[in-house]
Structure formats: structure tokens, C-alpha cells
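$ run holo --ligand "adenosine-5'-diphosphate" --emit C-alpha cells
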Amino acid sequence: MSVTANSVWNNCLAFIKDNIQPQAFKTWFEPIKPVKLSNNALSIQVPSKFFYEWLEEHYVKLLKVALTKEIGESAKLVYVIKMENTYGNREPFTEKIPSSNRSTVAPQELDVAIKSKNPELKNPFVIPGIRNIKIESQLNPNYNFDNFLEGDSNRLARSAGMAVANKPGGTSFNPLLVFGGVGLGKTHLAHAIGVEIKDKYPERTVLYISAEKFTQQYIESVKKNTRNDFIHFYQLIDVLIIDDVQFLSGKSGTQDVFFHIFNHLHQNGKQVILTSDKAPVDMQDIEQRLLSRFKWGLSAELQSPDYETRISILKNKLYRDGVEMPDDIVDYVAKHIKSNIRELEGAIISLIAQSSFNKKEVTIELAQLVVEKFVKNTKREVSIDYIQKVVSDYFEMDVATLQSKTRKRHIVQARQMAMFFAKKFTKASLASIGSQIGKRDHATVLHACKTVDNLAETDKQFKKYIEDLTKKFS
Ligand code: ADP
Ligand code: MG
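-- output --
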């Protein structure tokens, strides 16, 4: 029987399959194609550089064992990477990398040289008048990897974050986009990556900033005519972490400068880390060219923590605070607060406080009270999608009708109400609300809000609608 790339690989697969989780097998091994076998070297084709790095990081031992079993001690593995057409090249191209031969980290750039070349550069973090190019990282050392507990819900994002921290700018996770709902640890993880990089590479300039603050700085710079300084400042950073990029939606000026900054950093092998409350595909009002950049690297989701992870987060919190609490109480909290780690922590902190201030023992009754209050009191951020759904349901129409161009009065009114509630309950700009609710402009939304205000005062029935709907949102 002749030995071919296919036969070798199939035997390897059978062995690997027996040694890892079915899900991992499906994700990481099924997409691989054997392409060539020559001189005891098996070439396998993987879909991306990310894929190759992941295999090397996690499965290199297993692969080696499997291959050695098949071809003997001299077995070699070569990855053939089919690059996607992301950099404007017409044809997809391939790259061959032998196993365990990682591409090198981009050389360290010194900001000193640039400083002297451009002594007038203004640091947007500095109060005008005081010239200082020292860049504070804005990192919070309390958000680190040690206290970012691992669970199924965050494993991919956490390991990708670790990989980036080990080789900032040197992996294909660039940008690394971490996305997920409120209170699931995006900000914590973003800081943790930065903190870890500062530990490992103290000479690198790391900067954490929220997209909101970034936007404010940009607007300021336009007012003061220092837009170029603003851009140059950000181009000095080695590791740029921007939190909550969904905030940039609808803000085309800020998106535009960010695009330039991003390109510069990326081309120079600098690392960009982004967080967002939604996946790139679901982002609204972000320019296509920017969205496509977001997809260049890796998007990793933080999901709601499962029960075990919730328990370990609570126990870890208690441990760090030096507090003991009966297991049944911890269990109760973990069972009742499921979708938000911030709430989970809030409830346990509140319980700790109650018991220490009142010198009371924590009972299940007290836990019930706290959890109930806690869950009720945390105002949930509603999304514009959700608002449209609720308003459409209320008026028994579908969302497409609500968004349609029709001038039928009851539909127009429903649409205006949706805009009104979006303005009231979300932080979205008028422009962004307009474009998400049937592609209208900001003036239409403004007009809708005024109309709803007026009608609510003059029309009893209308007032009732508003009251009913308001209840549904709060
Ligand atoms: P987001 O930015 O996604 O809204 P945060 O990063 O602010 O969420 O996290 C909310 C809270 O939950 C923070 O106090 C954070 O420390 C905590 N937290 C989130 N994920 C974890 C985790 N995996 N382990 C421990 N604490 C976590
Ligand atoms: Mg956050």
C-alpha cells in the first residue's frame, strides 16, 4: 500500500480525534487539507495565519506525536496558509511556514527620535500650556489576567488576549476585537492585555482609551486646529487599546481619523486592541472600510458566563476580600444572576456590606432581598433594535413596516415613537437613530421627538401609548 499525504493525514486525524474534544476537532482539524508528502515532510493547508498560530499554540505536541507515529522520528510538518484577499491583492496567495518557526516580532520603534523631530507635538492628554510628551498608559492594574477568571464563555478571547500580550503586533490577531454584552468583562480583558504587555515589555508605549474620550479629544483638536497633532500623537503608540468602539457609530469624522491612525499603526506592526458591544457584522453606521479593517484580525466573543464560572468568580471575589460566605448563599446568587458579571459582583459586594455593617449573618432571605433589589435597580441599556421590536409588537406590525417609507398615519406615529424612545433610552446620536430606524436623517428624528412630546401633552390616547411603552422599557 502506498503512503500518500492523504493516507498519512487520515491516520493522524483518527489519532487526534481520539485525543481531543469533538468540538475542538471540528473547529481546528476538519478544515485542514493535506497537500503534499515529500521527504517525510507533510504539508497541510490551513485557512488562515490565525489558524496556523492557534494550532502551533495549542496542538503542536499532539500533531507531533501523531506524525511521528505515522512517518517516524524524522517527520516534519509544513503549514501552507491560504491567505485571504485582505490587503488588496487580487489573488489569494499562499505562504509556507514550517512548524514552530514563528514570524518575528516587529522591531521596537523609539518615540524619542520622533519627539526630537517633532518637538511641537501636542499630547491630547495634557492640559494646554503644559508641554509634556510623557504618555500615561491609562491602564488600571487591578484589571489583570490573574483576576480574569477563565471559563468556557471567555476562553477564546482570553487566550487570544494572552497571545497578543506575549507578542504585541507579532500575531495575526491584529486588530484583536473583543466583543460581547454589557458587564461581561470587555474592559477588564482590554486592560489585562495592556497590563501584561507593560509587564513583559516595559519599553513599549501602551495606551488605553475609551472610544468616547477619543472622540472628545478629536473634537477638541478640530476646534483648536490641532488635528494633525492629534493624529501624530496616536501614531506614536505601540499598543493602542480602544474600548467600546461601537461609540464611533455615526461619527464619521472620528472614524476617519481613526482609520488613518489604524492604518499607520497596523502597517508599522503596532498592536491594536478594540472592544465593542457587538460583532462587526452587527455594527451600524461604521464605515465599510473601517469595518473591513476590524475583520482583518480576530474577533473574539465574550459570552455570558456559565454557572461554574459564575461560582468561581464569586468565590474569587470573596477570597480576595477575605470574606467567608456559606456555599448555599454563593450558590443562590450564582443561580439568580446569570447574564452580567458586573451585577454578579455588585450583589456579592452588597451582601458583604450588609453583613458587615449590620453585623448580621447572611441568610438566604437576605440574599433573596439583595438579589431582587439588585437585578431590579440595574438599569438595563436597551438597544435600538429592541425598541423597534417592542414598538412594532405593541402596534401589531412588523419591524419592516415600522421602518418603511409609508406615510400612513399610524405607521408614521409608531416610527416616531420608536425614535423618541431610542433618544430617551439609548446614548445613540440622532443621526445614528435615524439611520437605524428606516434610514432617516437626524432632522427627521429630531422632528419625531418633538412631535411625540407635543402629542403626549395634547392627546390622551397617545399619552397612554407612551406610558404603556415606557413601562415595557423600564
Ligand atoms: P464590560 O466592559 O464588558 O461591560 P467589565 O470589563 O467592566 O465589563 O466587567 C464588569 C465587571 O466584571 C468588572 O468588575 C470585572 O472585573 C468583572 N469581570 C468580568 N469578567 C470577569 C472574569 N472573567 N473574571 C473575573 N471578573 C470578571
Ligand atoms: Mg466596558
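-- notes --
The CA atoms of residues 48 and 81 lie 6 Å apart.
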